[in-house]
Each structure stands twice: as structure tokens, then as C-alpha cells.
Write a structure and sequence with these properties.
Blueprint lengths: L1 H13 L4 H17 L6 H14 L9 E5 L8 E5 L3
Antiparallel strand pairs: 1-2
Helix pairs in contact: 1-2, 1-3
């Protein structure tokens, strides 16, 4: 259920809203979390998401991407780190 809440927060931050509508949506999300007995800090989730958007505006991955490399004649697979763009 928390994943759904995070998805709603992502949607909130990607849709342009004026300040009043934005605050109203936050209140609605908080009400929904209370009704569903989710003990989460909605304001904290929103702040963290906004902070990450400021730090990584182009959604650059924070961790190097791992891919499975083709290895001929190897019994076990080998993982290769790709460099972030």
C-alpha cells in the first residue's frame, strides 16, 4: 500500500497545480492514508521526492546499472557495471 502512496505523490509532483490545489491534494492523500491505517509521514515523502527531483532533474540513476554480460564457456554469469551517463 505504501508503494501506491509513493505513486500518488509522484503523480502529484508531476502535474502542475497552483498552491491551493497542491495543498488540497496533500490533505486528500493524508486522509486516504489515515483511512487505510498507513502510519506514514506524507509531508516527509513529498519533501524527499522534491529534493531528489532537484538533485537529479533528468532522472539520472543514482546507482550504476548492472547488466548480465554474455560470457562464452563460463558456468556462472558475470555482472558488469555500466557507467551513469
Amino acid at each position: 500500500m505504501q508503494a501506491t502512496l509513493i505513486a500518488v505523490v509522484h503523480k502529484l509532483l508531476t502535474i502542475p497545480l497552483n498552491k491551493v490545489a497542491f495543498q488540497d491534494e496533500i490533505k486528500q492523500i493524508e486522509k486516504i492514508s489515515l483511512v487505510n491505517y498507513l502510519e506514514v509521514n506524507v509531508q516527509k515523502i513529498i519533501r524527499r521526492k522534491q529534493f531528489r527531483q532537484l538533485l537529479f532533474p533528468n532522472n539520472v540513476p543514482t546507482k550504476p546499472t548492472l547488466i548480465l554480460a554474455n560470457t562464452v564457456g563460463c558456468v556462472c554469469p558475470t555482472w558488469v557495471h555500466l557507467q551513469s551517463p
